[in-house]
Structures
1.
Amino acid sequence: MNGLRVHNLSHHYGQKQALKDVCFSVEPGEFCALLGPNGAGKSTLFGLMSRLFTTDRGRIEIAGFDLGKNPRAALAQIGIVFQQQTLDLDLTVRRNLHYFAALHGIGGRDAARRTDAALDRLGMAERAQERARDLNGGHRRRAEIARALLHDPAVLLLDEPTVGLDAASRNGIVTHVHELAAESDLTVLWATHLTDEVWTRDRLVILDRGQVRAEGQVSDVTCGRPLKEVFLQMTGEEAT
Amino acid sequence: MTPALIALRAIVLREALRFVRQRGRFISALVRPLIWLLVFAAGFRAALGLSISPPYQTYITYEVYIVPGLCGMILLFNGMQSSLSLVYDREMGSMRLLMTSPLPRWWLLTCRLIASTLISILQVYCFLAIAAVFGIQLPMLGYALVFPALIVAGMMLGALGLALSSLIKQLENFAGVMNFVIFPMFFLSSALYPLWKMAESSRVLHDICAVNPFTHAVELIRFALYAQFNLMAAVWTAVAGLVFLLLALWGYDPARGMIRRKV
């Protein structure tokens, strides 16, 4: 079984419940927007899905691998773009990608070939020799997405990847990742609090105060109403 | 090359590149022990009389005595510096990259430990070379035999740093670690004065020094520099290193450790 499945996932920070019985699934080739206001539990969910920490309640399956029972096989199938910038700014883009490849046990010619292919895919081939510090925000994000795809993951997780980007870069990256999902059968989970990053053909999960408020195709969730209005109504938060 | 070795090479290379870029760190790592050697030791030479005790076979000057302790000082400060950079990495996010690799987490943390230890050892050899220029020369065989001792001592102190980095919540809390870990560990050891000398002034302080793993790391280095093996010191250092490493692995365990409270 491919794609991403989250079953009855709950998590507490001490007494505070961060996630409660979260369930959803994303199929290969689908772009799923995880829409939620700040503090909804998106980062906790990403922390659990990337196994930065674990919880006893619930289960996460990545490309058919149970993250709790078979973490290494599951992690090998995930590409992650964190909200925080994680490039080594003093290294070139190519070196950053090589370092990541090595962390996945990929070295030598295979790493070089994959790096070229990933950069090419994101339109970053010409910037391979530039230091990450010299790139603008949009290109840094592209480099991070290229890096996350280097090991051909089945599932791509992006945690608010457009934070801090200008409108043009944001639009470019949103479009690009949508195309990636459609063209390469990649399962994409895109966390955001911005409704304009969600397209009508996407799958949608609305998360609020640790609970899933709605899940399904965007058109099914909105029933013809503007997404922003539906989101505001469900969460009682100010969306942009 | 196996995936584990590919990762090790990349992590060592990254740490080396980072070190080369931070020339200030390299210079300060050398200046600190050199000040102790050339200023402090010169001043104390007259005040402290040292009798012959193993591994020394003749009377030695105070400068000669504190060289192994200062080698230990470089390893200690670097172990802590490396843990500081881990806390920084975690705050900046690049630690997440390491933690989400499909390779075993214990191996990834050990790779970081090996990388920082090798960088520390490079600095120790630079220090020994400068000390030799100032006339503090050691047996030639000692320069070679100290290498494994430096690895064991460096890994132990690096593991301590790693364990601390998993317990420290924020970068700001690190200053406390400097005060409560580095200074007591350094001063309550045989780095600056032999234990029998300490016993003359205070039995309690002597006992604290005797159980301090840093004392044993320094003694391991001291004996190795004179081509001798101190089994007791080697066992103490290795066991302490293992305990610190297990503590670090616990700290970075996604199910049990402290990291889950901080993301």
2.
Amino acid sequence: MTLWLDTLLILVFLTNLRLLGSSRLGASVRVVALQGVVLGLLALASRGGDLTGHVLFLAAVSMALKGVVFPRLLFRALREARVRREVEPFVGYTSSLLVGAAMLGLSLWVGTRLPLPTAVASPVVVPVALFTILSGLFLIVSRKKALTQVLGYLVLENGIYIFGVALAQEAPLIVELGVLLDVFVAVFVMGITMFHINREFDDLDTEQMASLKD
Amino acid sequence: MQTIALVHPALALVLSPLLLGVINRTKAIFAGRVGQPLAQPYRDLWKLLRKGAVYSRTTTWVFRAAPVVGLAAILLATTLLPLAALPALLAFPGDFILLAYLLGLVRFFAVIGALDTGSSFEGMGASREVQFSALAEPALLLGLAAVAYHTHSLSLSEMISGLSSTHWSQAGAMQALLAASLFMVLLTENARIPVDDPNTHLELTMIHEVMVLDFGGPDFAFILYGASLKLWVFCALLTGLALPVRTGNLWIEVAVAVIAIFGIAVLVGVVESCMARLRLIRIPQLLVGAGLLSVLALVLSLR
């Protein structure tokens, strides 16, 4: 079982790398969708053999939301805005990957020192969770297009989700559903915001918001 | 020292130009051509060795030494590598670092040989070669460090014999990461397609080819032969680390390893047929990515 868990965690890690190094918005949305599906599988794999209806239901809802609904919403925004690429990010793509290496080092260092209440299934769970959170944060601050920032937010949330999968195995159903609903509403609202940014500036570049003065 | 340890260097010396032939044949089949004979690299080497060399007046002894030192260093590298159960000719703790530095020496002499001609064109190739290898080397060393930690040994022979055939099921994730990272390093160091195009003579695509433009005759034969040996060294390393086959019979294992080496050559040919060369800007991303894969393999081996 650890082998599957490791493989899935490495897939999450690779999707993060792809996001850090990719300039194409469409490809990035697909990668985040893939990450969402992998997270659903991760939740199943971390439970080992005992799959209850509760776990299956949550994994299915999360996979459907992150793998199908969000990509649809985002692709729609992409189509309306007619943007294909992140042209000039604040931090270039190769530098982003190097920052990724530094973030990986940091998450490993923190991961070994973090006192955890329970034993985790795999030693890479905590580093990968931290790395995912950090890459999400980094995507939000280093990219200009509103869409990539939304993707960064989703990745950040995915990182927290991995943490939850690793540690709080017995979170009540209502809490987890609440979290998923929150994310859904957040992406929905961000979709509307993107629509308005695009209508105002004919672009998804959040830099231009600086020109708004009263 | 055992005489049996001489088998791997001998195999490398004899079979390495055939690797280039296999790659060319794979590409030809993909393109629907008949392709050159498999033994064409041998004929090229023989043709070049019979020619005389021409030296420009601006070059110094460095230019003449470069092909010889490059070939000598890569020959030494073949003696450090074990092949399946065949022990390496030289094995001591820490020899994998010597291997990395021997590869560095080959590169260093190729680069100063290119700079010695005073041609700005060759200088450009040299600068690219150094830039990309600077990123490929950490990936290689970290990957080897992961194996060293996993097998608790510092010598290549022990590292490779320490991996058992059940290794893939025990640490499959680490193994897959390592193989992917080493394959990317192999493509970079041997100037194969996603990084460099060995067929073209265009300024835009050339890295390795441009550095050897001014060499002719036996010097160029040394460089070509050195390049094929280098390809053999990387293929043998990748085979040893990624495909530990343990049957108990020495010669079956050796045969499997040699077949796997040629399998990697076919794989390189397939990659070259299916992919376009990456833009120069994207290559560092590929290599940093390879380095990160190695880091993660190291982390997985630390448990």
